């Protein structure tokens, strides 16, 4: 098959795949329905303070797998729903940030700086329109970058990296994630170490289960679902409960502000914010392609670069950044939304998750089977059909449809999602906890899995208490098996050479990069502490 044939086959897998239902005799593709449902769910979740896209992805994944089963046909509907949540949550996070000065997601904090002042000026609907246009524009740009770059990255890795180099690349990825995420590089390294220890319990290829303390409960190891949902979701809920306890006497009624004046987004205003959208889209796409950095840094950097541009080119009498400038909303929303596509470049090209949302994409493929993210998925073969490559182009088609939904209906869904801002956390958190344990039990119907989930939840809570990010733990847990398998294969391929990591200049370069990354991060932390 030629490349164009694979693209067409991927589109057909979505459009002519299993039908969800018929409308006037026309079958409606299941994958497109799931993408649409995912976008709506994501917008509602993003608009709810205290929730986030990865939380919804974590809860929904086990339920979706239980419903669709473990077969290749389930991949596109499940991945389509998860992609829809990922895209919709970023868009929905702007709603409470603009209307109530309460970020729906962490990356939406920068949106409050100009979004809420616009609301206080009676221009909330215009601010939402700016956020919608900027967010979807950045997302679309990022997806185009993914479609172009992921095959190129995969082909480069497949051509130049063997087992020792791939092992060193995984070590570099974990070192980079540990260095850039969390309170400090030291805490990041501890988080990674804990994740590797957890994934190695009961595993390996030895006759006896390792690190199991002779108990049957640990002999089988921890499932990826119990560890990730426990650390990410249960830990976050427990921390939110503690924060609610401290803030119980500080809550007050929200100020009610009525819109007035022209709420339309004029052509002149669109042209005024277009350079900010373009600049932030490039920034967010570049940051998203680097594992572990995430949308918060993209939003902050996009906003700061936009502020510099605005100070040089602001028209006379126009509001500055922080005073209700629509350019500020545009710069932030374009930056954080443009991460969503490019963060799948390391996922599809290398099999390495770059953030929490990408973790659940890999988790879905591992759980269902039939698709292994990494360089091999982009092998173009003429005589034998590469079904994984067909699935990739099917996934790209689902992403384009998600963008289409955001372009056409996203603005209306954002306005409708304002009701979610008023749901009190005291009501929301028990529901999230119940859904999490239900999802775990649906995947693994045993009390042991619930106890493991709760234990990992307590670990996640303690990590947050000491300002240690749980994300390095999660990514290390996901990559731990791949790291071990790659190291074993490299050891075998080099004839049992214990120094296989130093067998090529590429692997030595990756190892040196790991050390340099951590050292530079530690020095930067020391410098910041000295200046403070």
Automatic annotation (TrEMBL):
<feature type="transmembrane region" description="Helical">
    <location>
        <begin position="217"/>
        <end position="238"/>
    </location>
</feature>
<feature type="transmembrane region" description="Helical">
    <location>
        <begin position="389"/>
        <end position="414"/>
    </location>
</feature>
<feature type="transmembrane region" description="Helical">
    <location>
        <begin position="51"/>
        <end position="72"/>
    </location>
</feature>
<feature type="transmembrane region" description="Helical">
    <location>
        <begin position="499"/>
        <end position="522"/>
    </location>
</feature>
<feature type="transmembrane region" description="Helical">
    <location>
        <begin position="426"/>
        <end position="442"/>
    </location>
</feature>
<dbReference type="Pfam" id="PF01970">
    <property type="entry name" value="TctA"/>
</dbReference>
<feature type="transmembrane region" description="Helical">
    <location>
        <begin position="21"/>
        <end position="45"/>
    </location>
</feature>
<keyword id="KW-0812">Transmembrane</keyword>
<feature type="transmembrane region" description="Helical">
    <location>
        <begin position="140"/>
        <end position="157"/>
    </location>
</feature>
<feature type="transmembrane region" description="Helical">
    <location>
        <begin position="347"/>
        <end position="369"/>
    </location>
</feature>
<feature type="domain" description="DUF112">
    <location>
        <begin position="32"/>
        <end position="475"/>
    </location>
</feature>
<dbReference type="InterPro" id="IPR002823">
    <property type="entry name" value="DUF112_TM"/>
</dbReference>
<protein>
    <recommendedName>
        <fullName>DUF112 domain-containing protein</fullName>
    </recommendedName>
</protein>
<keyword id="KW-1133">Transmembrane helix</keyword>
<keyword id="KW-0472">Membrane</keyword>
<feature type="transmembrane region" description="Helical">
    <location>
        <begin position="169"/>
        <end position="202"/>
    </location>
</feature>
<feature type="transmembrane region" description="Helical">
    <location>
        <begin position="79"/>
        <end position="100"/>
    </location>
</feature>
């Amino acid at each position: 098959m030629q490349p164009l044939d694979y693209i067409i086959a991927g589109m057909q897998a979505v459009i002519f795949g299993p039908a969800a239902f018929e409308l006037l005799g026309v079958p409606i593709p299941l994958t497109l329905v799931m993408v649409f449902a995912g976008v709506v769910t994501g917008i509602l979740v993003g608009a709810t303070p205290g929730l986030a896209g990865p939380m919804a992805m974590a809860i929904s994944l086990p339920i979706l797998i239980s419903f669709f089963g473990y077969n290749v046909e389930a991949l596109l509907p499940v991945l389509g729903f998860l992609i829809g949540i990922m895209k919709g949550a970023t868009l929905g996070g702007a709603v409470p940030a603009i209307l109530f000065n309460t970020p729906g997601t962490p990356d939406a904090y920068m949106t409050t700086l100009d979004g809420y002042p616009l609301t206080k000026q009676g221009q909330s609907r215009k601010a939402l329109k700016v956020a919608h246009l900027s967010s979807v524009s950045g997302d679309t740009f990022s997806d185009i970058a993914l479609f172009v770059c992921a095959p190129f990255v995969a082909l480069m890795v497949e051509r130049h990296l063997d087992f020792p180099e791939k092992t060193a690349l995984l070590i570099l990825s974990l070192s980079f994630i540990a260095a850039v995420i969390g309170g400090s590089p030291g805490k990041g390294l501890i988080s990674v170490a804990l994740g590797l220890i957890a994934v190695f319990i009961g595993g390996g290829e030895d006759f006896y289960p390792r690190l199991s303390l002779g108990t049957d409960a640990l002999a089988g190891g921890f499932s990826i679902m119990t560890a990730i949902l426990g650390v990410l979701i249960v830990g976050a809920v427990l921390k939110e409960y503690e924060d609610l306890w401290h803030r119980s006497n500080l809550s007050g009624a929200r100020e009610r502000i009525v819109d007035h004046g022209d709420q339309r987004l004029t052509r002149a205003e669109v042209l005024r914010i277009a350079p900010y959208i373009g600049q932030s889209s490039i920034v967010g796409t570049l940051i998203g392609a680097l594992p572990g950095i995430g949308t918060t840094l993209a939003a902050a950097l996009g906003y700061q670069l936009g502020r510099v541009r605005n100070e040089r080119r602001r028209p006379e009498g126009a509001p500055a950044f922080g005073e209700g400038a629509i350019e500020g909303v545009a710069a932030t929303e374009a930056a954080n939304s443009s991460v969503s596509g490019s963060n799948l470049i390391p996922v599809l090209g290398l099999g390495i998750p770059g953030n929490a949302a990408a973790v659940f994409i890999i988790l879905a493929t591992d759980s269902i089977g039939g698709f292994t993210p990494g360089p091999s998925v982009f092998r173009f073969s003429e005589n034998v059909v590469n079904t994984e490559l067909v699935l990739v182009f099917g996934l790209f088609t689902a992403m384009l449809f998600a963008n289409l939904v955001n372009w056409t209906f996203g603005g209306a869904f954002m306005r409708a999602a304002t009701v979610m801002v008023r749901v009190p956390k005291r009501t929301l958190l028990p529901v999230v906890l119940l859904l999490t344990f239900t999802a775990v039990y649906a995947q693994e119907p045993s009390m042991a899995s619930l106890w493991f989930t709760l234990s990992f939840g307590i670990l996640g809570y303690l990590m947050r208490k000491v300002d240690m990010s749980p994300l390095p733990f999660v990514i290390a847990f996901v990559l731990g098996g791949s790291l071990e398998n790659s190291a074993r294969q490299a050891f075998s391929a080099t004839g049992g050479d214990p120094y296989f990591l130093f067998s090529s200049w590429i692997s030595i370069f990756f190892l040196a990069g790991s050390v340099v990354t951590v050292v530079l991060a530690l020095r930067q932390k020391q410098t910041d502490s000295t200046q403070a």
